[in-house]
Backbone:
């Protein structure tokens, strides 16, 4: 299958950006992740045989990369905090100007990676549940149960005193 | 669930657009760079395999067929006319 990368980029840049901008809160991280996703798409586009929908294939890459990126960032943060605690390392992140309200992403921390990405895809990006199931290689039932659990956890979290400012 | 809905609509409203064209340049240059790195990884693995092969060869096969440290000592002692040392080594 001969697909032009620039066409793919043009068609999917906004969709992929929308997805990751709800998943990752830091603008610089989003840009890094966005580039990593499209580098992977660029390299693997020749291997795409058309067995699945192109958009499913692209979102599959985007979701896998996002989850890996998020895990990598968590490990990095853990290590940074550990080193900061020991007085070895001082992060410059605190000094940087933050474009968006980080607090907005705070409640999502109660969810695991799968619940978080399912919630964002289903409720924010409005991707239908059967497509999400295909992207994540799981059944629609699993998507539904994860979505339900995610909403429950989020509701409980948002009920806390510290999120009063959101109301 | 109202709180959840309200929260999700706030999340939906997040829209900071990047410069997609500039990022495309980054993607293309990163793709090319990573290919070069991949090639380097292969060559490094290949060189490491050769090194490992020779290391095992020298260790287990006692340097036969090559000019060894003992050969050098024999040659030097012979040159100095000291046959006895060569004899001890050969024994």
Residues:
């Amino acid at each position: 299958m001969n697909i032009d990368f620039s066409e793919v980029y043009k068609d999917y840049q906004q969709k992929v950006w929308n997805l990751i901008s709800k998943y990752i809160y830091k603008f610089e991280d989003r840009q890094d992740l966005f580039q990593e996703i499209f580098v992977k798409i660029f390299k693997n586009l020749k291997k795409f045989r058309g067995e699945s929908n192109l958009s499913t294939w692209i979102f599959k890459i985007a979701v896998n990369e996002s989850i890996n990126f998020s895990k990598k960032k968590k490990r990095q943060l853990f290590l940074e905090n550990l080193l900061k605690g020991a007085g070895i390392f001082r992060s410059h992140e605190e000094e940087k100007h933050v474009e968006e309200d980080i607090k907005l992403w705070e409640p999502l921390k109660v969810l695991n990676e799968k619940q978080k990405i399912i919630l964002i895809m289903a409720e924010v990006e409005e991707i239908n549940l059967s497509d999400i199931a295909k992207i994540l290689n799981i059944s629609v039932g699993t998507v539904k149960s994860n979505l339900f659990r995610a909403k429950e956890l989020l509701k409980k979290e948002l009920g806390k005193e510290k999120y009063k400012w959101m109301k | 669930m109202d709180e959840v809905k309200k929260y999700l609509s706030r999340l939906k409203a997040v829209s900071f657009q990047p410069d997609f064209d500039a990022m495309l340049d980054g993607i293309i240059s990163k793709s090319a760079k990573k290919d070069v790195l991949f090639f380097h990884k292969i060559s490094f693995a290949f060189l490491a395999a050769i090194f490992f092969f020779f290391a095992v060869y020298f260790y287990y096969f006692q340097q036969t067929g090559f000019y060894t440290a003992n050969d050098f000592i024999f040659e030097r002692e012979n040159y100095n006319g000291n046959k006895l040392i060569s004899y001890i080594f050969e024994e």
